[in-house]
Design brief:
229 residues, mainly beta, Rossmann fold, Tumour Suppressor Smad4, 2 domains, eleven-stranded antiparallel β-sheet, 4 helices, 13% helix, 42% strand, NAD/diacylglycerol_kinase_sf, NAD+ kinase activity
Length: 229
């Protein structure tokens, strides 16, 4: 098997010692990015071959650094399965302003300030609430900000998790959406920013909407007999 290792020469030597053939991304059978940032960079492009992340804080989808050699040996022996995960586009109007694989969040940029947000599924508004922000996570990203805000951990194919961040109300809903999600800044209580996969993309104006739509997919290789959190 040809493996493209991205981001770490020491890991490349480990993969080579485990019996895989090192290759570039264009000719590889599998891509092994090291670290979350490197994983996000390659996954956003929706590569045609599976990805096996390493040291990327993705729960059971990421090999711990100390388990890379064992993991690659098991991979070469035919262990594991592939699962498909969405790559989403964030658009305002007709313009795509970002792509992501983990989560997107609208959040006030000033401390101790809240704003008001509308959440819509398929064009139908389901709720308006006041909060520090709102996060939409893919199953792959549902272990991150969304879980910290009280959302569920999702299995592949279940949809998108939508979770208010520090809502003003003590009784606030969370949702699992099966399709597109539209977030709108409903009032002007302070500057609001769009953050995708941990990176600030741009400011979002009052009454402006951001639509999140699955536009591509990425396949991740998972070794089910090697579980970790």
């Amino acid at each position: 098997m040809k493996v493209a290792v991205l981001g770490d020469e020491a890991v490349a030597r480990t993969v080579d010692a485990a019996g895989a053939t090192l290759a570039d991304v264009e000719t590889a059978d599998l891509v092994l990015p090291v670290g979350e940032a490197r994983f996000i960079d390659v996954a956003r492009d929706g590569p045609d071959v599976p990805i096996l992340p390493a040291d990327a804080a993705l729960g059971p989808y990421s090999l711990p650094r100390e388990a890379i050699e064992t993991g690659v040996e098991r991979l070469l022996a035919g262990d594991g399965t592939s699962s498909s995960h969405p790559v989403f586009a964030a658009t305002t109007g007709e313009t795509t302003i970002a792509r992501g694989v983990l989560d997107a969040m609208l959040v006030t940029s000033e401390p101790a300030r809240i704003s008001e947000y509308d959440v819509a599924f398929g064009g139908e508004c389901v709720n308006r609430f006041r909060s520090d922000g709102v996060v939409v996570a893919t199953p792959l990203g549902s272990r991150g900000y969304a879980r910290a805000a009280g959302g569920p951990v999702l299995e592949p194919g279940t949809g998108l998790s939508v979770v208010p961040v520090s809502p003003f109300s003590t009784q606030s809903d969370t949702w699992v959406a099966g399709g597109d999600v539209t977030l709108t800044v409903a009032r002007d209580d302070g500057p609001v920013e769009l953050v995708v996969d941990g990176e600030t993309v741009r400011s979002i104006d009052p009454h402006q909407s951001v639509q999140l739509t699955a536009v591509d997919h990425v396949d991740l290789w998972r070794l089910p007999s090697m579980r970790w959190e």
